[in-house]
Design goal:
The protein has about 200 residues and is of the alpha/beta class. Helices cover about 40% and strands about 20% of the residues.
């Protein structure tokens, strides 16, 4: 099974094509380079692959998937449907993809773009919250401030941290704080499923 998306813009250079699926490639504008890296990670998690070609007629991205594959059992998903995961993610390119992935795993999802909105959402919805998935580079307030503010409202809610930085950097950033795990971008769906399921299971 294949999916192709094409535009009619200027062709990519050889270097741009070579680094097309790399997170924050130097050939891509700042804060716009993680999307295709995340897409490639998701496609590979299904056993698929991706290809880009570019010429004077535009650029085409092709995604290839094995027939008949999927992730997760429908009965398992049904048992998760009453659980809400709060996604705090500042990158618009990743935001929709992450939200779709959580829904694919069977969870209800609440999504916000910044730390302040996350704190406000939790203040109003803390009773139904199963876990918080927090981008370690979230905007409006630092991820640490966001974590601490949410903890003051929901002391026991588990946290899963996401980052394109190294795990060592995130551990240093959240030293002496309680969190369930770290998810490095780009990620694979089985890794996401395992970490989120373990996190929600700790409630």
């Amino acid at each position: 099974v294949s999916l192709r998306v094409r535009d009619d813009g200027d062709p990519l250079s050889t270097a741009e094509r070579r680094h097309f699926f790399e997170p924050f490639s130097p050939h891509i504008l700042a804060h716009e380079g993680l999307g295709m890296a995340a897409v490639l990670g998701i496609v590979r998690s299904y056993g698929g692959t991706a290809h880009v070609k570019s010429g004077f007629e535009g650029t085409e991205v092709s995604l290839y998937f094995p027939v008949g594959t999927g992730w997760g059992d429908s009965a398992e998903k049904e048992t998760r449907s009453h659980l809400t995961v709060l996604l705090v993610e500042k990158e618009q390119a990743v935001f929709g993809t992450m939200e779709s992935l959580f829904r694919h795993l069977g969870y209800s999802v609440a999504s916000v773009f910044n730390g302040q909105s996350a704190v406000e959402w939790v203040t109003e919805n803390k009773e139904g919250l199963a876990a918080v998935v927090l981008d370690a580079q979230v905007s409006e307030m630092s991820a640490l401030q966001c974590h601490d503010a949410i903890r003051s409202v929901c002391p026991s809610v588990p946290f899963l941290l996401m980052s394109n930085s190294s795990e060592e950097h995130v551990r240093g950033q959240f030293a002496d704080r309680d969190y369930a795990g770290i998810l490095q971008k780009p990620f694979r769906l089985p890794d996401l499923a395992r970490l989120v399921t373990d996190t929600v299971g700790s409630v």
